[in-house]
Design goal:
6 helices, 195 residues, single chain
Length: 195
């Protein structure tokens, strides 16, 4: 999703070794803790020393990811560039289209293979969703139950819609490629029948 906008930047930076823990901490602190609220995420990133993403780069990221009302922050270190992108997104799920608050953290650094997927799998603690998974990406649907996660039967459109309307449905995924590694979190705020 975001790799198109980051490819040129990734090629210009060293591919230094990094590991998943700092990125997962950013995911937790900037996306999960803020419930993917764009204003809260931007405020937390800014307070943490992240800088605004230049408008042309932000437009490229948001266009590639299909994110509306996008905002973002970035920072760099010896390992590469890190980004946080927030906004709203439309996701077709089962028999519905979910309007979600969307938050993603991404890096051009290269965590050891498997660390980000393993970290997200352990945190999600539910089976991966086939509809959100493909080579290089693994996704999860779950209900947030006072901090615990319960699996969601997304193969039942009526049940999926009811869960989305409950306000407790959460979506998370990890995406990895040669140039970009991303963790994303989304919370539905509106549900409409698929057209």
């Amino acid at each position: 999703m975001l790799k198109a906008g980051l490819l040129a930047l990734a090629l210009a930076l060293p591919a230094g070794a990094a590991w998943a823990a700092p990125m997962f901490d950013d995911f937790q602190g900037l996306c999960v803790k803020t419930a993917a609220d764009p204003a809260a995420t931007v405020a937390a990133a800014t307070a943490g020393g992240w800088s605004p993403v230049p408008a042309p780069l932000l437009a490229q990221f948001s266009g590639a990811a299909g994110v509306q009302d996008a905002d973002g922050r970035m920072r760099s270190d010896a390992n590469g560039l890190s980004f946080v992108l927030v906004g709203h997104k439309q996701l077709p799920v089962g028999g519905a289209t979910l309007s979600v608050r969307f938050c993603a953290v991404a890096t051009t650094a290269a965590p050891p293979a498997g660390q980000l997927p393993d970290a997200l799998s352990a945190w999600a603690a539910v089976p991966a969703a086939a509809s959100m998974s493909k080579p290089g990406q693994t996704g999860y649907f779950f209900l947030d139950d006072a901090g615990g996660h319960k699996p969601v039967p997304m193969d039942d459109p009526a049940a999926a819609m009811a869960m989305a309307k409950s306000g407790h449905l959460r979506l998370a995924f990890v995406q990895e490629s040669k140039s970009i590694h991303m963790l994303a979190f989304a919370i539905p705020f509106d549900v409409s029948p698929a057209t």
